[in-house]
Amino acid sequence: MKEETAIKVLKQVKEVFDEHGIVYWLDQGTLLGAVRDRKFIPWDHDIDLGTWQDNAAKIFSACQKLRDKGFNVRFSEHNKGGVDIVKEEVPINISSYRLIGDKAITKWFLRKRTVVGYATEHLLAILSNLPYEEVNPQNLKAPFITMNLLKISKALPSSWRMQLAKIVRTIYEKIGSRCVEIVTPSHYYTNLSTITFYEMEFKVPAETEQYLTYKYGEDWDVPKRDWDPNEEDGAVIHANRQLLYEKGVRMSMRRP
User: pTM of this prediction?
Assistant: First the structure.
């Protein structure tokens, strides 16, 4: 991800989101880079933004505008309710959170290393491909098969394609992937402040350092190139502990 291009693309998204009155904030690796390094983390491959599921209608409207500006927009294959936006090889991941009590919750779906996992993820990506998007066969896996599937997908009415994508997504979520729940104390996202990032104003959790500690640990200010979000993210660890606790409670209730 080239820094200059990423700045330009982020600025365009910011302008459209602000125009549509969307509440969003810098999140995850992008927030970490903005606070710790005052720039994008060099080895980070995307830009992370967070928003609430209540903003879905505004996000949809903004995405229509972004398409007019040459962005590829599609529902995320991995983040439940999220949106992936791409332009000039700069991916922007928008995580969508549900507010449940004092927790902000979203779900990630990670592909299982099985035939079903690979096949459903690949087919879902094809069905999400927009009709106007040009695809370079050299960048594709199984280019002959993929290009033909893309042609079939683009020939379908959008309503049919959306219904088929919904069916494939259901299969992917049920047996092609494993679900990882992301749980964050809601006050980090309901109480926002503002920082300057590349001469632009962005919302961030007001308790910024506490949030980064929750996500990345006490040593969040130490760069870790091989950090694994699926195993080391504090929001994932917290969710797993909560799940184990709930299972333990249920098991203890069954004991005579």
Answer: 0.73
